[in-house]
Amino acid sequence: MAPKIAVPEKGAKKVKQPTAPSTASTTAVSSAEAPVAKADEIIDDSSNGPIYLVAKPLTIAEARKEERYYNFALFMVTILSFWTRFYMLYHPDQVVFDEVHFGKFASYYLQRTYFFDVHPPFGKLLFALVGWLVGYDGSFLFENIGDGYVQNKVPYLAYRALPALLGSLTVPVVFLTMKDSGYSLAACLVSAGLVLFDNGHITQTRLILLDATLIFSMTCALYSYVKFMRYRNSPFGRKWWKWLLLTGLSLACTISTKYVGVFAFVSIGLAVIIDLWNLLDVDRGLSLKKYAQHFIARAFALIVMPFMIYLLFFQIHFWVLSKSGPGDDFMSPEFQETLGDNEMALLSKPINYYDTIDIKHKDTGAYLHSHPDRYPLRYDDGRISSQGQQVTGYPHKDANNNWVILPTVDFPENDRLGHPVNGGDVVQLYHTVTGTYLLTHDVASPYYPTNQEFTTVSPDDARGPRHNDTLFEIRLNNGKKDQFRTKGGFFKLIHVPTKVAMWTHTKPLPEWGYGQQEINGNKNSQQVSNTWLVDEILDLQDDRLNVEKKKVKHIPFIKKWLELQIAMFRHNNALTSSHPYSSLPPEWPFMLRGVSFWTKNESRAQIYLVGNPLGWWFASCCLAVLSGVFVADQLTRRRRYYVLAENVRNRLYNSAGFFLLAWAAHYFPFYIMGRQLFLHHYLPAHLISALAAGALLDFFYGNPGVFPVAYHAPGATPKTAEKKKGEQVESSVQRPPTMYPPSSLISYLVSGVIIGFVCGVYWFFKPFTYGDPGLSVPQVLMRKWMNFDLHFAK
Amino acid sequence: MSSTSTKFSTLPAKDKAAILSITGLAVLVRLYKIWEPSSVVFDEVHFGGFASKYIKGRYFMDVHPPLAKLLITLAGYLAGYDGNFDFKDIGKDYIEDGVPYVAMRLLPATLGVLVIPLAFLTLKAYGCTTMTASLGSLLVLFENALTTQSRFILLDSPLVFFTALTAYAWANFQNQPAFQSSWYWYLFLTGLSLGATVSVKWVGLFTIAWVGVTTISGLWHLLGDLSVTPKQYAKHFFWRAVFLIGVPVTFYMLMFGIHFICLVNPGDGDGFMSSEFQATLNNKKMADTPADVAFGSQITIRHWNTQGGYLHSHDHLYPGGSKQQQVTLYPHKDDNNIWLVENITESEVEPRDLAPVYLKDGDIIRLHHVKTSRRLHSHDVRPPVTEADWQNEVSAYGYKGFDGDANDNFRIEILESKSKPGKAQQHVRAIDTKFRVIHTVTGCVLFSHKIKLPSWGYEQQEVTCSKQSTLPNSIWYIEYNEHPLLPEDAEKVNYPKVGFFKKFAELQKVMWDTNAGLIAAHNWDSRPPAWPYLRRGINFWIKDHRQVYLIGNIFTWWFSTASIVIYVLFKITTILRWQRGYSDYSLASVQAFSNKVGTNVVAWALHYFPFYLMKRQLFLHHYLPALYFSILAVAISWDVLCKNVLKYKAISTLATIGLLVTAVYIFVTLSPLAYAEQWTKDQCENARFLKHWDFDCNTFPNDISGYDASSLTNVSSVQASIVGESSSDSSFQSTEEVLPRDEL
Q1: What is the interface pTM, i.e. ipTM, of the complex?
Q2: Domain that holds residue A419
Q3: Nearest residue to B105 via CA among B139, B60, B71
Q4: How far is CA B356 from CA A329, A356, B295, B652, in A?
Q5: Would the CB atoms of B722 and A451 count as touching at under 8 Å?
């Protein structure tokens, strides 16, 4: 997949080594070309060039036998996988950890009430689908960790069966990925075993959480891509297309579950870029036209199509959530008007001039208020006020909150009704109780020397010398000139001469202001907290009284999607608060600390998310060794020592290198993420490290890797290869008999020991995985490895 | 050119003449009216202030390493500055107080001038002709942002200077034959200037990254050269490690050594440091305190993990929650920090007439706040700021004569692993014993974290009782201890002495944390995407209808940015063509362009892109080192262009002159903003080349004659409580406010 990492020195003329078929796709051919030799016999085919290591091909009968071994192993792994994931699925019958969120979201879907979440909808929709299939009405809202499922009649088993199913299927897919990458059975078993007996994967995939969907989709994406690469010698064939499109589909599901799915895109994307780079190689003989086809096919299947699928899930999301719900407040008024029984859609009324209204601050809920008391002459810090009438924010309904909205030029006496106020209009606000006009001027406010004081002036002043200072613009938040409405019409009140925006905050005024809120003019008029809304029109008498049954509005999907997308990213970035069990990326590969999910005092049982420490350490060691192998190889080659046989090296770079790259893409980006992180964020990377561990073991088992990992589909002989290699391609087999590398006894032994130990540690930590049985103090202390902060240790 | 070094003495006469005349011009342009304005400009507030503190020896905390500040102090000290000016506000007058500000400004200005010959010599080292090397250094000279920045007491001019010195030494090092004396010299100079760069500002780490990347790529090439024996290779490796790691690290630490030697007295930076550290400052040395803590002792309790200070309570109530008396952490010594250790069975405030009973692990106590006669209390109410389920509020509750209730009971749990071995692990001793305080009823532990209460809590640190706290944030210890019945000769303890390395390490951590915490928005901050095209500048100073506004020479910025874009496109194209079998790289000109411009583009990228990862407030002047490298890149590109495309000397000379004239024209047009000169409103509006440039043209009179009338009245001194329309006082802020706030 990623052949030829090292680029010849820049500036040198491009000289390809004539003796080295250096790219992976020619491995198939090279086996046909290479003289058949006995196993492990080394053929030095040039005095100073690369070396090839060639093994004896299997006969068809032997290959069939191997195939049967693989199938049997796959079967056993799958059975065990289902058993480990479904074991005691009913326990605990209480809400555990983040089931609070995802169970709740499923209920919202079932009730079709709008909610807001930072994750994309696919994973949550699947839970809703399960709930819908078993006929649940979504009446339970998963409020607290520890709430009982049985007394609330929640079909939690059905819910949990979904992640358990996906988690169980992940293991065989891991096995198949290794098998189709051409690894020996002993190596495949280690990779699958590391995931199979991993307490972390099990815990995380048997609860109502999104990670099972995420990890399964990601694994499928890797598997599909490995499959796709096997058909690289018959491009644009049926199977080639099938696996390419499946890769795209799996990627789409991954990113539609959680945004960390983007790392899967990065992993596959890097591999595709390297692949495309090699296809571009002039020695490949691809014409630019053909190359463009390759390029476009991948761009379509891996970018355009996944994006369309991603949008489709949002389309379903909007279609399901048609009613007003707890997520309304996150969205704009226009959006809210598309939801059924939304307050905005039902109660919003247009405002006309001469209406008496009350104005409410969106964030603090205080009403714009004034009373006859005046500002004190001098504040504590020695600054002086205008001594004008106080304007404050007051949280309760009161006649002093009533303001009449007036035009700057009066309408004729007999024609005052029915003139709409529109966004962008300049108005005056008249305080009915004291008979004064709202005003702001360049006097500093009580608390903020930088902000302007708000006060009121008499009608004479307001019509005379101070007229300009009483003018305010109603600037709707959507920037439009629509009619000004109650409830929905969020707006900023901008003072016309000085451009400050009316603002308030929660610090109460001193005694002279009765502890009410300060209102002042904020020079930074763009600030979101400057937003106000008209709560209602008082003494409404005309026909606007009769609420006409408004129709639910409709806005185009793309607009809704964009708005939601922006809101989601904004909230995701805001998730920075600390959590007692959050952890940092450097701790993960060493499995230093877990996450407490659930405890039960009576039985001293607990669920504690912790990866299988032995498995994690082993996989992390393998990553380190693998990196070391790559570095050593590069350094020795730089000094012209060719230690590795060329075909072994190709496999090392193309397959193990791909895993290492994918692991890095799933791990290092977390270092630059500001938000709170948890151990379970490492699970996808851990799964890939298990693949790399298998690949490394296979390297040490000494499988020469002569078997063709790529094969031709029948009848689809690539033209380019034909040109170069002539007749030999014609004779190449459709499915070569040397499909599987035979495993040696010692390799089975080593793999068996590794899996045995990993399984033992799994068993040891089992009580924390399934929350059963409860443990005594010494038993807990015995399991308190590293920094595990377990409960009931005393 | 390849094996000689570009020292002034080895240059041909033509180059000597060029470099001398350009430097002479630089002195005129850069030092022109350096005494204007004669009041505090922008961050002179900080860096001038630090000079005062150095002279007075008052400990302060700043997010930048000390070198440039020490140099500025030295300049001021030599000119006779006594450190009595406080540089408090932008616009504060220097002349009245007799501050030798010109001498202090001359330091960055001189370094700013020296950058220009350095640019010339660096370009020569890259093989440029005299004409193109002159072009590059003149572009640096006529750069408004570099000019503005180097005229005031700021750190960026020293930073750019040392960065340029590194670039010069490193470019020359590449040209030297291995293991010659000049090879060692330039390697040493590179290391030294790297140390200096990073001792000015931490962005010097980007310069180190650049040298590191090029070193690794150089070593990689050497590795492929089979004529280099392993022994020679080891030698290459060793000397690079010594000069590029050893020298900078030593230099950097040396600067902090001088820093600690200068600052021996307590000052406003104490609150950032640990108690052990503070105990090393004059007058702040704590008196020895009796070691053994007993029932009846009056104690102060400090939080171990944060520098929030002492467990504190005062006669103010929580506005929400239980509405009981606040309990906070307060960083300064105060009577409100004193608590009396009570036995739960005894409620008298006075210590009893019994022999003191030592406080042991597992003892249950009540903490009585002596000043307000209330006891430390916790209950199932959410705390005021952190409203998590696993957090309970901590308050002070009760009144004089009240017997207390079960919610006042706390258990002491000694942490043996954190306490000093010996007696301090057996019973509670001041300073040496670290312990947790557990609320017996709910099982939560006394906890604090770096979250400040709002203004009603005087921005002191929040204290809660947490059921799931991380260990470090729930560790406490006793600093002050007194018991009336302890004998005079009772054993006393004090903080352990801290050596240089410990102080150094601690200060690095505090600087890092403070730096990361500078996230508050600033009126004039900007984000990296806006820099390469010069979206907006920074308002440094406005007074008397004149202003200083940091803005670059837009021609130079766009021209250099364009050259980087062109280089990247070129590189992509040639790499793709190379893969298709074209042999562009066999042309010497393509190779030269690719390598020489490439290393400067890499330097630009390493000085630019890391800022994207920074969440702290950023400013236009953070781009200046990157700008320097982009100007080098543009000059070298122009050199390649002149040599290979504009082959006739007349054409290339004319084109070069055309570029220079444009740059100088823009420089002159914008220069009143750098020199704080008189200007008219129309001239100002005409100089606004981009509509987002937000200098305030309304401060200038309509006509130049307006200055005669208005210079007498000082308009911007508006009465404090009036927000004047024309003055933008409120929009002035210097950067990096890091001073701790005291209780009101």
Answers
A1: 0.78
A2: 350-539
A3: B71
A4: 61, 73, 6, 93
A5: no
